[in-house]
Amino acid sequence: MKLKNPKHRSQRERKRFLTGLLFILPSALLVAIFVLVPCFYVVYYSLTDWNGVATSPKTFVGFKNYANLRGMSDFGTMMLATLVFAVGMTILTILIAFVVALALDKKGKGRVSRGFLRSAWFFPTLLSGTVVGVLWRIMYNYNNGMINKIIVHFGGQPVNWLETVGLTNFAIIAAATWARIGICVVIFMAGLQGISQDLYEAAAIDGATERQQRKFITIPLMAPSITINMLTTSIAAYKAYELPYLISHGRPGTTTLLLAQRITFYAFNTMDYGRSSALAVCLILIITVFSLIQLAVMRKKEDIT
User: Fold this and answer.
1) Of the candidates 43, 34, 56, 37, which has an alpha carbon nearest to the alpha carbon of residue 274?
2) What's the Cα-to-Cα distance from 218 to each of 14, 156, 197, 303, rounded to whole Å?
3) Mutual orientation of helices 273-304 and 37-46 as an angle, nearest 10°?
4) Which stretches within the chain are classed as H helix?
């Protein structure tokens, strides 16, 4: 038996490596230009005192912008509102999307077309955050909103959705969840369809009920889909800007003012790019830390399964 020449083998491996590198290069360049370079400049601007005008000087102030963040009158309220919105939206979206995916995955006669229902659930995802924000603000209107009209029709009292502390936070979360559910349902349904029916049949033969099958087969095997949905939804929630702003404008007071909204305010309203960039760096760190924690926890769940 003739052995292959190590020199030829190394040349072939080198060629495969270069080919793979060429395929990766366009994406790597795009990431470098539109992600890494902007991140570098955000960190740089956060260490300066600058008003955003190209001709104005940039004064290096070190970590002064970060030290001044806690002195902001609404910093604590803003961070709490951002955390409540992100956690609330993520949990509510994942739970509802999972239940909807299970319902749409069922087959049976005499039901409404599953294709139509899937399209209906996915439709809100196609709308922009601006459209969803305006739509839900109209529905939340105290006097003429559809939601209060329905409540009054059934004998209740109208609710001030947009001017009640605590309730307004939930109103924003509900609207954002409605807009996000569709994409999560699609991911969950893809995960459900990847589960072999043989597992359910074997469990049924062993006497497992439908509830037990969901608990010991469906949920464990759906761990990768849950991980993806949790990560993408929480990241989208932390970055949310137009939808929450158009619904509440940060009111009542500043109880629904989110971090992304404050970044824009300091950058374009007060022209304080140093403070705006410092807040942006904080947002990046928050997203990174929470994403790594979620990923570590969910990966353990996947390993167990």
Assistant:
1) 43
2) 43, 40, 11, 15
3) 130
4) 6-31, 37-46, 64-67, 75-105, 114-126, 129-139, 146-153, 167-193, 197-205, 210-213, 219-221, 223-239, 242-248, 259-264, 273-304
Residue 138: both structure tokens together? 């109209």
Query: Which amino acid does the sequence have at 183?
Result: I
For residue range 83-116, list pLDDT tens digits in order: 999 999 999 999 999 999 998 887 655 556 777 8
DSSP of 184-199 = HHHHHHHHHHTS-HHH
Give per-residue pLDDT as tens, 203-251: 888 888 888 888 888 888 998 999 999 999 999 999 999 999 999 998 8
Report which DSSP code applies to 249.
Answer: T
Hey, CA dihedral for 203, 208, 209, 211, is it positive or negative? negative
Residue 201, amino acid? E
CA–CA distance, 5 with 9 (Å, rounded to integer): 6
Q: Which residues pair with 48 in a beta bridge?
A: 60
Angle at CA of residue 221, ends 218 and 222, nearest 5°: 80
Phi, psi of 48 (to 5 degrees): -125, 165
Q: For residue 186, which amino acid is it?
A: V
